[in-house]
Amino acid sequence: MGGSFALALRRAGLVRQVVGYSKSPTTTERARQLGVIDQAAPSALQAVSGSDLILLAVPVAATEPTLKAIRQLVTRDTLVMDVGSTKRDVVEAARRVLKDDVGAFVPCHPIAGKETAGVEHADPDLYRGRTVILTPIERTLVAHLKRAQQAWEAVGGVVQQMSPEAHDAAFAAVSHLPHLLAFAYMQGLASQAKCDDFLALAGPGFRDFSRIAASDPQVWRDILLANRDQVRAQAAQFRQALAALDELLQAGDADGLEAAIRQASDLRAPWRLGGA
Amino acid sequence: MGGSFALALRRAGLVRQVVGYSKSPTTTERARQLGVIDQAAPSALQAVSGSDLILLAVPVAATEPTLKAIRQLVTRDTLVMDVGSTKRDVVEAARRVLKDDVGAFVPCHPIAGKETAGVEHADPDLYRGRTVILTPIERTLVAHLKRAQQAWEAVGGVVQQMSPEAHDAAFAAVSHLPHLLAFAYMQGLASQAKCDDFLALAGPGFRDFSRIAASDPQVWRDILLANRDQVRAQAAQFRQALAALDELLQAGDADGLEAAIRQASDLRAPWRLGGA
Where does a domain end: B162, B177, B209? Predict the structure, then answer.
């Protein structure tokens, strides 16, 4: 996410110099070799020194320690953004660490994931045409909010604003629950003796349905835990619907089953990415 | 499925004339207008008259009535194939209807679905590079089995053989269960007041995970019912895995959750369509 943003901002002509830092020195060095960043910093604090725009691209639970590491050099004039898939926890972390300077922080969530993380997959087109959600709080500075919006629009994003709470409720339903289900599905397969034989026969339906199960374990551990109340509420809704379908199967109720599938199909068939 | 097969066989130069029949006269007529078939037949029986290769492309529960409708003109010299996603029920239907001529029937399952059915979506490349499973029984005639294999290879398919039982067990795991879960997921959303707001925010993960929920309700009603014991057994495995993940969430067990996601991710990440 961070590498793609750097490449896209550079192509848009909006940055003179990109400084990168990763906990893993090999990642930082690879980013420099690939031309994703101009300069590799030896620490988060040194990376942000002199920056006017800081993007945190870390698993959401790492937001707080990362903000602490750079706190000393964050003023109200520095725009700090994140790309986390949950927003209430990230906003609380920013409040705790930045205190009076929390207005510098603009919580962001670009809806543009890949299941392949890592700087090798950085792609300047990643955000083109994709929704980017900003969840400002009452203390966010309007000037920073505008700059954040301009930066995301410059890389091709379509910006939308909502509250952190509304964000987390919606993404529990349309992103976090699907990930949880895809993980559970692969685990259910993994526990079976014929797992490999089965997987060798899987087709395009499996490919698409299970793609998100290949997502990064640390990133998704953090997201699911940060938003666990909403995720568990969505999982409960799902379990109810699954139990109802299972009952129709058990009863051999063809009409009831067809009606249920039709409801699902009618809801999904007209859906288009970005509402287009 | 039928239209794509007709277009592909024609392009391969293997057919002189394609006669089509659908229960819906407008479908048959549209297929003729689109050049997918040469001739529209007024009944299934008239469609198969004089044919040396018959492809049944109907929801699996319609296999038996369709075979009955054409029974009179099926001899041991006619190759009859289907494209159904379940095989035990289709084989039983063929035994019941064709009796001594059951050797003419070669049960087929091309792993090449689209969630958009209908002759307008017929595509001569649909089967290119895709696995096509044949599930012959002990009475299937070897000559027909070979011709079936040649026909599928001519349209680009990669043919594989297995028993109807092994087929149904594997596809319950890698196709039927994912469909059931995708249907349940969309139904769980449909029951919520904010469903439309949520869907407007959904991204690429949702798009791929839920794509198969847009599948044809009649086709999937039949598949899930025909294979319901295997599907329900797979659903039970899944429910166990989901309950375990939910417990980890409830307990806030970060390490346990990460390990579970890693198991799922490690199984899915290296998977490739066709085993490539």
Answer: B162
